[in-house]
Fold Major facilitator superfamily (MFS) profile domain-containing protein.
Amino acid sequence: MSEMNRNGSTAQTTEESSSLFLITSDGRTLSLPIASPSPRDPLNWSLRCRFMIFFSLAVMGGICVTMLNAVPILRHAMGLEFGEERMKQFDAATALPDVMFGVGVITWAPLCVGLGRRPVLVSNACFLLLGLVLAWRATSVPMVMAGISLQGLAAGSIPTAGMIMAIDVTYIHQRPLSIALLWTVGRGTTFIILGAAPHVLDLERQWRAFYLIAMLCAVAALLLVYFWCPETYFLRPPVAFDGRILVQTGHERIKIYDEWSQVPGGGAHESRPLPPLPMPLQPLELPPLPLVEMSPARPGTAEDKPKNTAISMVQSYEPSLFSYPTISTSASSRRAEKFRGRFRRIPGLPSVKRAQRSSWRGAAAVPVQMVLCLVNPLVFWVIMHKTASFLGTIVIRQALPKVLHSPPYNMSPATAGYVDFAAALGCFVSMPLTYVTTNRMVHRLTWRNRGVRRAAYYLPGFVLPVTAGFLANLLFGLSAAPVGSPGYLGTLHHWTVVSTAWMLTQIAFTGESIVSTLWVTEAFPQWAAGALAAVSGLNFMFAVAVNTAIPKWLESQGQLKMNLEIAVAILVAGGMGIPFAFWGKGVQQYLPGRHGAFMTGALRPQ
């Protein structure tokens, strides 16, 4: 949340984004943002509902990331079936999944605003399944490439629709842990699967079996997303607080009004009652809901009446995942609703439709906001740094199988798969390393700033990913140098060094993703969809563009020099953040033009 404005001014401020606590008159601290009494509000949903959402997102995200990283280990088996001559066009498009991932991020971010989170997520689960079916039944190399492209496109929905959905169902103080878990669990599970796959399947020949198993998992992911992920897009209404009215804006700011008539749009409705108190201050009161008494009445009593149910008042409400009924006290209205419900759809089957009050105008503004975000020096720095870090990940991922199968390692595919367990360890280790250190540093800096948390406090969290990325490329370059080359060091040519480099690569990539997501949602809450797409999508596009020159780069420089140059680029890009942190402070929340006024892409849409 940002500093509170006591007047009713609608002028946008350019102050630096910050957060603070909201304390009631009796000394209680509220969880922010303030939940409304509506059962559609995701902040009212039970812990079970939230777990189901996070579990579904983790399963789908794990499958998507697994397929993005599975192409190199399936390449040899595809070459045996289709022939090396036909696989040349496949090798020329090695980065195709990453390209489509970036395209997906840029495409799905506006649709999350125009359609809602649930339609985007369910449709991408279908695209993922379709891509796996195409790859499984492929009769030609272009058909395999089409399937892989659809898989990459579907994976782009996780850092957009999935991440925004996870933010929708959590309070501000729960956001860092939820983002860290979502990035860590999916990627860690991915490398466990890739490490175990060579021991379960003969990936030298049975690449179709791998896609078949992935297809069955995608069916499960589609069912989970369809049944367990409701729509979380919700426009937050005003609420009453200690005799005043609080309006929560798309900036995650709070404006306080003394009278209901001062609220923009409230003067024309002065006859309306004040909005309800925040959820933490009173039980949620809804219209009466009919509750069926499960225990039957004893026979022979006055209560023994046919087709009679007990009616009671509901004081608390755990929302259904898919039905948010509007209760009417009119008997005729209830009969009409019951009659219409017989022909509407199958009872209990959730629907996939456009979210209520979603905006196509806001969706059209998101791509423009993505471009305008590049004007901010801090966003530009994060994109450039993530580009260098992701480029190092691509280079190591592509070279890893060849290095392990060549002298002096000479590993079999099954033995080389153990290296992926080190990558899984790096993903899981990155969560406590990144989340705990960043969270403690933010708390310490917030305490020194008298309780006000600013977005710039997340920037020191980039130190760990920068250091890990630099060391990963340095170690891999030294351990991957061919025997007899000028940079060959026999003491570093050991599988433990390669495993350590691959583990540090995942620590850098996962930690970078966690910190950048935390920072961009804190710095740009009112343009969250566009800012997330800019940070998570454009860096993939830039890295893939540079990746097209890797074959010539490798031929002219060699593996050692290429990785050393990438390591230096990561270190230099990380160091550039210090001046950018001060340079970008003045324009951190500024977007020029009319497109900056749309708040439908915000974390808390208004």
Q: What stands out?
A: The first strand starts at residue 18 and ends at 19.
